[in-house]
Every structure is written in C-alpha cells, then in structure tokens.
Specification:
heterodimer; A: mainly alpha; 2 domains; 4 helices; 0% strand; B: mainly alpha; 75% helix
C-alpha cells in the first residue's frame, strides 16, 4: 500500500469513526435516541457482520472445484460459531478458527 | 475526579481481560498490516487514533484481497456505524463530565471496552466514574497499539499465509455476529 493510499484510507476512516464515536454522546446530552432510530441502528451490526461473514464464506460457483474445498471453510466456520456461543471471546474464536482451518486443510 | 493509585490498579484489573485479548489479536493484526506495507510507526499511529480491531483487520484483509480503496473505505465506515449506538448508550453517564474528558472517552470506545464500561456504569450508585471509564479505554488502546507495532516487527520475520489470516478475520466477524442481539 503506497503512502498516499494509506493516508486516504486512514484519514477517511478516522473521520467517519470519530463522527460515529463522538457525535451522539455530545448531542444527546443524556436524552435517549428515538426508539425507531435505536431499533434501526441496532439492526446495522448484525446485518454488517452477517454480510462480511457471508461474503467470506460463500461465492458463486464455489462448489465447481468439488464439494470439500468450498465446504471446508464452512465446517471451520461452524466450529467458530460453537466457540463464539460458549466464550464470546474474539481471541478464542480466532484461535479455534485458524486451528480448525489448518487441521481441515490437511484432510 | 482525580485517580489515586488504588483506583488505577483496580481499573487495570477490570480492563485486564480486554488488554490480554487485544495482545492476542493485536499481534496477528500487526503481522497482516506488515504484509500490506505498514511499518511499526504507521501501525502504532493507526491503532492509537483509529483504534478498531474489526476495522484494521478489514483494511489489511481487503487490501491483501485486492479490493479497491473505495470499497475498503465504504465497508469499514459502514461497519463502524455501530459506534453510534455505543456513544448514545454512554450519553446519560457523561452529562456532568467535562467536554475534553467526554471527547477522549468517546473517541476510544470499542466493542469490548463498551462491554466492560457499560456493565460497570449499570451497576449504578455512581461508583463508576467517567475518569475510570476513560482510563479503561486508554489501557486497552495502549495494549492494542503496542501489540500492533510488535506484530509489524514480528511480521517482517514471518508471514501468515493469506488464506489463514483472512480466516482469522472471518472468525472474528463470526464472533462479533454471534454476540449481537437483534433488536437491541
């Protein structure tokens, strides 16, 4: 990544991040967000994370090379889901995911 | 609202699980950042200002995957909008706090420190102060920044295969997805 690209990505993401982090706490001054705004906002994280996970695990034509190469990350993903429910820990999920992915790659 | 030594130690212990988690995730993140051409200083500065695990993993992972800049910026920013909710949730506890402290606190909120601070505030009776909450954020952010920098330095010695690194990112997103409660 060139220095210019880094600066563009860094500056833009930093600005949007600071706006999201700082504006509500100052503007609300202890008031609540309207309920429908809260509900709408609360749907963003599950939608965003679901989209990111789906994008990583599924592609059109993923089974063209055979069942196992495409199914293998899905199986590893299931292991991560179980660990996620049990521990809610980013660290354990990353370890479990990488370990099961590496083990399944050997099959 | 000054912080004495006992309070600082107490706050450190409360933040410790998150600090350790960030060391574990920060080093791999730094290794990936090294693979896209960051040096230790760039990783440290990004980690101490932008300060986002999901975001930094995404920037590194998407760049390694060849995504265009605009895609990276749009995806990262969209995922970051969940910070609006965290900021709104903390607003009632900061009505009396000074503006500079409120800014410092809110600029350093993450998913994990949100969990820690919010549950401390919700214990009620005013025992948990904005200063203590800000200190939790600063402890966590420092461990994240240092771990990323260390990861970059380690990464110049070893490389994680892209498929494995990107699956680590997928695993993190699965964890974040599973931890969401739909409808708030």
């Amino acid at each position: 990544m060139s220095i210019n690209d880094f600066l563009i990505v860094y500056a833009t993401c930093l600005i949007t991040m600071l706006l999201c982090r700082c504006v509500p706490i100052f503007c609300l001054k202890g008031r609540d967000l309207p309920e429908n705004v809260c509900t709408a906002l609360s749907l963003i994280p599950p939608a965003a994370f679901a989209a990111l996970v789906a994008n990583d695990l599924f592609t059109p034509g993923m089974f063209d090379a055979g069942l196992w190469p495409a199914a293998m990350p899905l199986v590893a993903g299931c292991v991560v889901v179980v660990i996620a429910f049990k521990t809610h820990s980013l660290l354990w999920c990353a370890i479990a995911g990488v370990a099961s992915y590496a083990l399944l790659m050997l099959i | 609202m000054s912080l004495d030594r006992t309070t600082i130690t107490n706050v450190f212990h409360i933040a410790l699980p998150v600090i350790l988690g960030y060391i574990g995730i920060g080093i791999p993140c730094g290794i990936m950042e090294n693979q896209i051409g960051f040096n230790a200083l760039m990783a440290f500065v990004m980690s101490m200002t932008f300060y986002s695990g999901a975001g930094q993993f995404m920037i590194a992972g998407m760049t390694l995957g060849g995504s265009p800049l605009l895609s990276v910026i749009a995806s990262v920013s969209f995922v970051n909008t969940r910070q609006l909710l965290y900021s709104a949730a903390f607003s009632p506890f900061f009505t009396e706090a000074r503006k500079r402290l409120t800014f410092l606190f809110s600029a350093t909120v993450t998913d994990e420190s949100f969990g820690v601070n919010f549950s401390q505030f919700m214990k009620g009776s005013g025992a948990w102060t904005p200063s203590q909450a800000t200190l939790v954020n600063l402890f966590c952010m420092t461990s994240w920044g240092v771990s990323n920098a260390i990861g970059v330095l380690v990464g110049s010695a070893l490389t994680i295969p892209t498929a494995i690194a990107s699956f680590a990112m997928t695993s993190i997103f699965i964890c974040l997805l599973v931890s969401q409660k739909i409808g708030g």
